[in-house]
């Protein structure tokens, strides 16, 4: 007893230097335990926007006609192949044979019709109902074939059908999917210890990983402690970039730095004076030091961006140099616009990038002569006040939807930007299918948005993953909010 | 005696009604639309309206209040907006963590505090007393969540003796589940033990001066028997009061500790249902905690009045 | 001043000087106040000067306690954190005393239905665990120092109402207060001349204890992200920020925790000591 007490005291005395000691391997090789920040509110991806739902059940438990892979490409899933009519209005899907739902019922074309009709129905509570807006009707040609007819061409239909919101469910079980989900995926639902974990088990007894635990640990420091203590095997999306440094130096762990679709921006309310003045918006863009924000808030993980576009996309145009960090220039622009003693509020939602980034931006804007009042808000308030009510000056948020520059052409979107030039470009884009022309148009759109300095564009969010050495097949990038473990194995 | 209890019960009922009204009003003015939170930024107006109707948010407030209280009175709770299960089920799952946690913390703190407090009392004014009182001051001053953070670092991460966080569930085995509650319970118990040790010391000192204790000594009873028999029994009354109040406090006070250890307890449920605007859950959990505090107070008062009839007038 | 009063004071003074708790408590509290006051006129560095390249440095001549994850000076932030804690304590206890003592002495003086309302009102407020009320209040009005202080202050109201009501009722039971009424003084005058001076020492002792409770409560709220908001430094917030960094730099988590513990320890010892010095028979009610 004396010795152990002494050990504990030494640990404290050494300033906790013993933290690098290798933890006990708690997991056996047929289980996988993953740590997540957010617990899903329920497990039906077709009835909620929470990314945590998809992060748990997408591809693992529920499958769609198509699926989106690690690199964001569309792959066949329940549909093995498809044909598209020349006018782009009729899609015919061949379905996979011999698929059953976890409750034993057979999967066929009727389930597809049911699922898609349910998602686009009048009383649907699907959070991404607009994904299906172009669909006119869905018909079962025969049990193995489905035909979708569109009312207008929709270039993204196959991608849209790969979203978690478009998964195929069975009419027998759909109503209970929130609590006991029944899908067609390789893992089926086992149990949900609310507030702690969701457990899925393999349908096929020959799979190496027989059970997958999704542990919900809201606090990143608790996640790190759990990984080090051997409670969990991996953190797929670590919200504490500073911890990555320590894991990189540790031979027991593998660190993955991938990309996301998250453009992290300092959004501005373009109809609220003085932000109506382009000089003020440009002054703000000059006042922020993107690299310092990436270094300070994200410990260097993240790529500075100059527009609302992901750097890994072929249509990306590098506009980072448009507004270089230049405090004097910012001050000059402010003076020119007649603004002195400028005071602005900055509403920050909960994520680390926003709260930490906000603190750094406030300090940088202070240097340029703009006093910033930080107002932290919860998501519920952010959605209501900032997003819906547009009652804000500035906010920081990461737009994680893929290819979403189109939001700048929307009316009354929360930054209240209205540009006929951009709308014209986006209209042209929607009517174009040639990839090269599309990329050129997208480039044009980026330039317009940056030229008008609609928002101050900060950085592309990185996806930081840490897992135990020997775990293979984990996703590095996050084209969609999914944790596809179907290809994961222990070595 | 009976009239007193009936009167106290009436007071209890009025307190609960006022408290339930307060909870309802607070949740009514809570900003943030639960339906919007579920559907997110791409939510369309018709989808939102459909979901609000599904959640029952489209009916007038007085109707919803009466439905709530009426439902509780008839033993049914609402369905959680987010988890889609009855609230009672959800609370039951969480209590299976929080109540054992609070109980262990209470037992640990009592087991530490009573001997230590008595030890200090019997050595009043001597080094032992000063040492105990000094430690108890330190124990009260250390924020329990700081102690929790440091204990995770030392005992879970560095030494690997305990899990760093989470709760595996009772069905994974009693020992495994209990093991996960050791560090959180210790973190909760530390300041409580410090307070209780002081209360014990004071109560014992008070009783030591009482006539019957002197009589017992005079009769030649062994000092040890006097101490554990007469003195402790009589000192138990104020200590029980504190322990009762501490238990009520621990149920809610574990919020911070549950956050540090990522435990799926009642406190986390409150925190979660606030951020997810799951008002159906929130109102029941808060009311449950209020009921608990009120009932504990009631029991303490009644117990006092049985021991000391004068207390009846004071209340 | 009469001879009796002088000798009473002299007696108190000598008791204070021989009381170790009082002395240690006074010194720690004095240090807390001194750092807080000093931070009003001077700090080693600006508290919000972000310098990413200088982050998480160890102690040096330029930064006595090193720098935090944004390269800000920790000593500076602890000093301003002390100020923040004092403001929290003073305002929260102030709200509690002002409203609570008023209600408490009123209830004691008038008894009847006013007494009933004050007692039952206290019961209702007490029925809500403080941390739950605080979470709800900050959910409505937004997280922030002011709202956290108000939440803690509201919780203090019934504490002071109960203590002052109980103490005041004892005073009303004494001979000379009734004599005061008999010679035609109003209840208000008796309260002012006899009741308040007599319950003052109870209230002072309770105030120091609630002060410590308030500091702990604010730290807990700030730790949950509901208290003082960045960039303003608060000890609880510093602990919250430090959590994910402590594997890289343990001092970030150790220092603010120590500061909280020392401040609370000082105030508790001071309260204890004050009780013995002011009136050895008194015993303040302690509510967790």
Question: What order do the helices and strands of chain B follow?
Answer: HHHHHHHHHHHHHH
Residue-averaged pLDDT of chain A, rounded? Answer: 88
The biggest beta sheet of chain A is recorded as:
11 strands, mixed
Helix content of chain B: over 70%
CATH architecture grouping of the largest domain in chain A = Roll
Describe the fold and architecture.
The complex is a heterotrimer of chains A (491), B (315) and C (288). Chain A is of the alpha+beta class and 491 residues long. Chain A has 13 helices and 19 strands. The longest helix of chain A has 17 residues, at 435-451. Mean pLDDT of chain A is 88; it is low at 1-27. In chain B, helix 5 (87-122) packs across helix 9 (182-208), helix 7 packs across helix 9 and helix 11 runs antiparallel to helix 13. At the A-B interface, helix 1, helix 5 and helix 11 of A face helix 2, helix 3, helix 5, helix 7 and helix 11 of B.
Summarize, please.
Chain A is an alpha+beta fold.
Blueprint of the fold:
The complex is a heterotrimer of chains A (491), B (315) and C (288).
Chain A: H1 2-13, E1 31-36, H2 51-57, E2 66-68, E3 74-76, E4 79-84, E5 90-95, H3 109-120, E6 135-142, E7 145-150, H4 157-160, E8 187-193, E9 197-202, E10 211-216, H5 220-228, E11 234-235, H6 241-248, E12 253-268, H7 278-287, H8 290-298, E13 303-304, H9 327-336, E14 342-348, H10 352-367, E15 370-376, H11 379-388, E16 394-399, H12 420-430, H13 435-451, E17 456-468, E18 471-472, E19 489-490
Parallel strand pairs in A: 1-10, 1-11, 14-15, 14-16
Antiparallel strand pairs in A: 2-3, 4-5, 5-7, 6-7, 8-9, 9-10, 11-17, 12-16, 12-17, 13-17, 18-19
Chain B: H1 2-29, H2 34-39, H3 45-55, H4 61-73, H5 87-122, H6 127-141, H7 144-158, H8 174-180, H9 182-208, H10 211-218, H11 223-261, H12 266-275, H13 279-307, H14 310-314
Helix pairs in contact in B: 1-13, 5-6, 5-9, 5-11, 5-13, 6-9, 7-9, 7-11, 9-11, 10-11, 11-12, 11-13, 12-13
Chain C: H1 3-18, H2 20-41, H3 74-110, H4 112-127, H5 130-141, H6 145-172, H7 175-182, H8 187-223, H9 235-242, H10 251-278
Helix pairs in contact in C: 1-10, 2-3, 2-10, 3-4, 3-6, 3-8, 4-6, 5-6, 6-8, 7-8, 8-9, 8-10, 9-10
């Amino acid at each position: 007893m004396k010795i152990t007490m002494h050990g504990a005291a030494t640990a404290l005395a050494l300033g906790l230097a013993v933290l690098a000691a290798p933890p006990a391997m708690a997991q056996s090789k047929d289980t996988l335990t993953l740590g997540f920040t957010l617990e899903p509110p329920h497990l039906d991806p077709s009835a909620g926007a929470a990314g945590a739902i998809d992060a748990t059940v997408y591809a693992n438990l529920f499958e769609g006609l198509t699926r989106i892979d690690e690199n964001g490409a569309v792959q066949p899933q329940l549909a093995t192949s498809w044909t598209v009519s020349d006018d782009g209005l009729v899609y015919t899907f061949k379905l996979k044979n011999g698929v059953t739902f976890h409750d034993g019922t057979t999967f066929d074309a009727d389930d597809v019709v049911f699922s898609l009709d349910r998602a686009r129905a009048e009383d649907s509570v699907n959070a991404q109902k607009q994904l299906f807006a172009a669909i006119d009707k869905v018909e079962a040609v025969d049990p193995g074939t489905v035909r979708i007819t569109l009312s207008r061409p929709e270039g993204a239909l196959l991608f849209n059908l790969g979203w978690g919101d478009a998964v195929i469910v069975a009419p027998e079980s759909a109503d209970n999917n929130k609590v006991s989900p029944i899908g067609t995926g390789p893992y089926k639902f086992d149990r949900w210890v609310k507030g702690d974990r969701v457990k899925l088990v393999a349908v096929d007894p020959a799979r190496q990983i027989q059970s997958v635990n999704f542990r919900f640990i809201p606090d990143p420091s608790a996640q790190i402690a759990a990984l080090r203590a051997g409670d969990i095997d991996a953190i797929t999306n670590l919200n504490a970039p500073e911890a990555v440094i320590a894991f990189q130096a540790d031979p027991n762990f593998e660190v993955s730095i991938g990309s996301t679709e998250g453009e992290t921006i300092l959004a501005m309310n373009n109809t609220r004076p003085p932000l109506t003045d382009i000089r003020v918006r440009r002054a703000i863009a000059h006042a922020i030091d993107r690299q310092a924000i990436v270094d300070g808030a994200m410990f260097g993980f993240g790529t500075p961006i100059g527009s609302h576009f992901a750097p890994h996309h072929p249509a990306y145009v590098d506009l980072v140099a448009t507004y270089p960090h230049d405090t004097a220039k910012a001050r000059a622009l402010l003076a020119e616009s007649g603004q002195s003693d400028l005071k602005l509020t900055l509403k920050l939602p909960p994520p680390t990038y926003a709260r930490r980034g906000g603190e750094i931006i406030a300090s940088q804007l202070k240097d340029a002569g703009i006093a910033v009042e930080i107002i932290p808000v919860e998501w519920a308030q952010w959605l209501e006040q900032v997003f819906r009510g547009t009652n804000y000056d500035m906010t920081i948020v990461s737009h994680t939807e893929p290819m979403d520059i189109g939001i700048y052409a929307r009316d009354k979107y929360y930054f209240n930007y209205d540009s006929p030039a951009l709308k014209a470009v986006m209209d042209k884009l929607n009517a174009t299918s040639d990839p090269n022309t599309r990329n050129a148009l997208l480039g044009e759109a980026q330039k317009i948005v940056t030229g008008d300095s609609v928002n101050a564009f900060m950085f592309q969010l990185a996806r930081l993953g840490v897992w135990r050495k020997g775990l293979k097949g984990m996703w590095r990038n996050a084209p969609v909010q999914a944790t596809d473990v179907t290809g994961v194995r222990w070595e | 005696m009976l009239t007193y209890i009936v009167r106290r019960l009436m007071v209890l009922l009025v307190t609960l009604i006022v408290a339930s009204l307060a909870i309802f009003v607070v949740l009514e003015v809570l900003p943030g639309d639960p339906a919007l939170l579920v559907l997110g930024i791409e939510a369309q107006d018709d989808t939102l309206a459909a979901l609000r109707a599904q959640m029952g948010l489209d009916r007038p407030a007085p109707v919803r209040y009466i439905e709530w209280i009426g439902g509780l009175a008839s033993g049914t709770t609402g369905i959680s907006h987010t988890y889609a299960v009855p609230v009672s089920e959800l609370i039951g799952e969480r209590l299976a963590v929080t109540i054992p946690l609070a109980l262990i913390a209470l037992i640990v703190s009592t087991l530490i505090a009573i001997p230590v407090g008595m030890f200090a009392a019997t050595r009043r004014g001597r080094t032992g007393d000063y040492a105990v009182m000094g430690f108890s001051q330190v124990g009260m001053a250390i924020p329990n969540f700081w102690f929790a953070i440091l204990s995770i670092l030392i005992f879970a991460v560095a030494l690997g003796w305990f899990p760093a966080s989470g709760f595996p569930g009772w069905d994974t085995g009693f020992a495994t589940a209990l093991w996960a509650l050791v560090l959180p319970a210790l973190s909760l118990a530390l300041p409580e033990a410090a307070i209780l040790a002081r209360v014990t010391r004071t109560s014992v000192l008070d009783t030591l001066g009482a006539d019957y204790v002197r009589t017992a000594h005079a009769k030649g009873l062994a000092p040890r028997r006097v101490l554990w028999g007469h003195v402790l029994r009589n000192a138990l009354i104020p200590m029980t009061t504190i322990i009762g109040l501490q238990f009520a406090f621990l149920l809610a006070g574990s919020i911070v500790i549950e956050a540090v250890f990522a435990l799926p307890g009642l406190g986390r449920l409150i925190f979660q249902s606030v951020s997810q605007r799951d008002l159906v859950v929130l109102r029941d959990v808060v009311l449950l905690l209020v009921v608990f505090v009120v009932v504990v107070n009631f029991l303490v008062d009644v117990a006092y009045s049985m021991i000391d009839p004068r207390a009846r007038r004071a209340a | 001043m009469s001879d009796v009063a002088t000798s009473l004071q002299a007696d108190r003074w000598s008791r204070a000087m021989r009381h170790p708790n009082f002395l240690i408590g006074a010194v720690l509290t004095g240090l807390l106040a001194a750092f807080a006051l000093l931070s009003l006129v001077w700090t080693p560095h600006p508290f919000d000067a972000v310098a990413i390249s200088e982050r998480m440095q160890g102690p040096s001549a330029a930064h006595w306690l090193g720098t935090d994850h944004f390269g800000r000076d920790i000593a500076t932030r602890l000093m301003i954190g002390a100020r923040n804690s004092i403001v929290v304590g003073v305002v929260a206890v102030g709200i509690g005393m002002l409203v609570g003592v008023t209600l408490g002495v009123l209830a004691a003086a008038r008894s009847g239905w006013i007494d009933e309302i004050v007692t039952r009102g206290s019961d209702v407020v007490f029925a809500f665990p403080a941390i739950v009320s605080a979470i709800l209040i900050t959910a409505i009005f937004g997280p922030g120092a002011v709202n956290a202080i108000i939440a803690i202050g509201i919780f203090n109201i019934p504490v002071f109402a109960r203590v002052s009501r109980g103490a005041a009722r004892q005073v009303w039971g004494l001979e000379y207060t009734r004599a005061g009424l008999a010679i035609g003084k109003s209840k208000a005058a008796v309260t002012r001349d006899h009741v308040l001076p007599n319950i003052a020492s109870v209230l002072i002792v309770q105030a120091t204890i609630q002060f410590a409770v308030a500091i702990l409560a604010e730290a807990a709220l700030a730790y949950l992200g509901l208290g003082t908001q960045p960039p303003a430094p608060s000890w609880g917030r510093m602990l919250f920020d430090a959590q994910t960094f402590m594997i890289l730099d343990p001092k970030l988590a150790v220092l603010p925790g120590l500061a909280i513990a020392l401040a609370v320890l000082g105030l508790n010892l001071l309260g204890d000591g004050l009780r013995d010095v002011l009136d050895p028979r008194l015993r303040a009610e302690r509510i967790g």
